[in-house]
Amino acid sequence: MLLLTLAWLLYGAIHSFMASNFFKNFAEKILGKYFRFYRLIYNILAFALLIPIFSVQFSIYKEALWQVSIYQSIIGKFIAIFGVLLISRALQGYDLREFSGTDFNKSQEKNEFKSDGLLKYMRHPIYFGILIFVWGMFVTDASTRSLTSAVAVTIYLFVGIYFEEKKLIEVFGEKYKKYQHDVPMLIPFLKF
Question: Which stretches of the chain score pLDDT less than 70?
Fold first, then answer.
């Protein structure tokens, strides 16, 4: 499990570093006119770097924490599917070409404050969907390796939210602070 934990830590560090304004400014200087491809490169790397993590996860011996019943497996799969549906619904609120980095005619940072769709109910619906998905997979699997990944992803997402919200406050100031006050971080209708 140590190797899997280290893989997730390394992924989180690389992913966060590449999302930082420091690295983006550095990349803009290096890439020049090709910086418009940065978001696409970032997304490709984010997905590509998951491949070795999943390779490690599925190469580790599956040590069950308890015997999973058929009902628990079905419930876990429904939870995971709900997470995927939530992510899908949240993505509908974005310009997917811009989000994916395939809209090469627009600038990398639009600085458009969005608070419609699912963003009316929670500030980070995509992250919430990811959390639901990984914990649903744990319920389905109930192994040490799925627990390790679920805990690592949860910790990373909360760290990511912290830094992302700092950047959003820098960009949108009091408008975002009011949004933080009015809209829950992850769980609709709760101040969490």
Answer: 106-111, 192
**Beta-bridge mates of residue 143:** 64
51 burial via Cβ count (<10 Å: 0-12, 13-18, 19+) = exposed
Question: pTM here?
Answer: 0.88
Could you give the CA distance from residue 17 to residue 59 in angstroms, rounded to a whole number?
27
Cα separation of 101 and 36, whole Å? 8
Domain extent listing, the chain: 2-182
| CATH class (in words) of the domain with range 2-182 | mainly alpha
Tokens 């939870």 correspond to what residue? 79
pLDDT in tens, 95-125: 888 888 888 776 555 567 888 899 999 999 9
Cα–Cα distance for residue pair 135/151, rounded to 1 Å: 9
Residue 171 vs residues 58, 126, 183: alpha-carbon distances, Å? 40, 20, 18
Give 180-183 contacts, CB < 8 A, sequence gap 24+.
180/123, 183/115, 183/119, 183/120, 183/121, 183/122, 183/123
Report the C-alpha gap between 169 and 177 in whole angstroms: 7
Contacts of 35 (CB under 8 A, 6+ apart): 27, 28, 108
